[in-house]
Structure formats: C-alpha cells, structure tokens
Design goal:
about 220 residues; 2 domains; 9 helices; flat
C-alpha cells in the first residue's frame, strides 16, 4: 500500500474535503449519465496531478464491485435506470477514496496538528488511514501461512474460522496493544497540552490549481 502513496500530493486537508465533495455530488448525480462523466473527469484530474498509482489501483476493484452490484440490480429490478444508479454509486465511492489512498497519514497528522485540531481527531484520523493497509498486509500473511501448511480452502466454514478468522483477530489485538504503547511512547496525549510540529505541511501553487480545476469540473457538471 505504501507504493500507492503520492508524496507530492495535494494539501492533506484539501484531500479530505475533496473526497467528501466527490462522494456527495457523485451520489446525487448517480441517476444520470452526467454523474459518470463527472466522475470520469475527476479521475482524469487525479491522474494529471500524480495520483496515477491510486487511480490504477481502484480499477480492478471498481470493475468487480460494479459488475456484481449492476448484475444484481438488473436481475432484481429489470430496470436500466436503476442499474445506472447502482453503477454511479459504486463509482462515486471508488473515485472518492483516491485522495485517501494517495495520502500519507503522517502528513495529515502534521497538517491537523499545525491547524491546532483536537488531538482526539488527529489521532483518530491517523489510525483510520493506517488500519486498512495494515489489515490487507495481515490478511496476506495469514493466507500465505495457510497455503504453506496446506490448511485447505478458505471457503470451508471450519477452515475459515480456525485457520483464518481466529489468527486474524489475535494479530489485530496484538497490533492494537503495540500501537497503544507506540502512541504513548511518542508523546501523543488526548489532553489539551502544548505541542510542536517538527515538519509543517504548507500549501503549494499546485494545490490552488487543483482546487480551481476541481471546483470548475464540479460546478459545470452540476449546473449544465
């Protein structure tokens, strides 16, 4: 997952706001083809600003999820409009996660700390952004261990529970304990105490260009 991160990405707080706007506008425009054009334009915008790894990474996931939900929706409703809406909703979620995939948690923490955000919010955002890559990594390790030991198919309920689910839960509990000790060792406290930021995140001229283009695409898509 670290290879997806965009070290020269846009301003961290702008990334979060962008994700929220994409999700809201994408869901509102899901029933029309304009919504698909809007999401395609935003995807190209991220591609232009260096998020090509995250943009390419969501393609397989979006294809699989879109196929599943669209087929299920059409099989139940027999309505092409409902199927188009399902496609728009799935793609809205997929495009909205691109800024998060390309965002380094350390930069977001530094950004929020510079803005004097509550420490609870800062710490929560850092853990939330770090959890999914960690979950994927631990899941991959357990699957490799299952193959090495010849545990069998994960589709079997007994094998899934004893060889996959239980080790995963134990690993996550151990990681949570280690994380709590690590956070305490590094001086993270919930209380309102004075703290300093070693490396502040500053806005760049590319952030303003991105914001202008993003707002232009969003306003044109909604207004036209």
């Amino acid at each position: 997952m670290q290879t997806i991160k965009n070290k020269n990405g846009i301003y961290p707080l702008l990334s979060i706001l962008t994700s929220i706007v994409i999700l809201v506008v994408g869901l509102l425009m899901a029933k029309s083809t304009k919504g698909l054009y809007y999401l395609g334009g935003i995807w190209l915008l991220f591609l232009l600003f260096g998020y090509y790894k995250a943009c390419l990474a969501i393609i397989p996931f979006s294809c699989v999820m879109s196929g599943i939900f669209c087929l299920a929706t059409y099989a139940i409703s027999k309505d092409t409009n409902a199927t188009l809406s399902a496609l728009g909703r799935i793609l809205a979620v997929c495009v909205a996660v691109i800024p998060g995939l390309g965002l380094e948690p350390s930069k977001l923490v530094s950004n929020l700390s510079t803005l004097k955000a509550p420490r609870v919010l800062t710490l929560g955002m850092m853990i939330a952004l770090s959890f999914f890559p960690l979950l994927v990594k631990e899941t991959k390790k357990i699957r490799e261990a299952m193959k090495t030991r010849g545990a069998g198919s994960i589709l079997s309920p007994k094998i899934f529970y004893r060889a996959f689910l239980l080790p995963l839960v134990v690993r996550l509990v151990n990681i949570s304990d280690t994380l709590s000790l690590s956070v305490e060792t590094r001086g993270f406290e919930v209380g309102d105490k004075n703290f300093s930021v070693y490396k502040k995140v500053k806005t760049k001229w590319t952030d303003f260009v991105f914001a202008i283009l993003f707002l232009a695409i969003t306003i044109l898509s909604v207004a036209v």
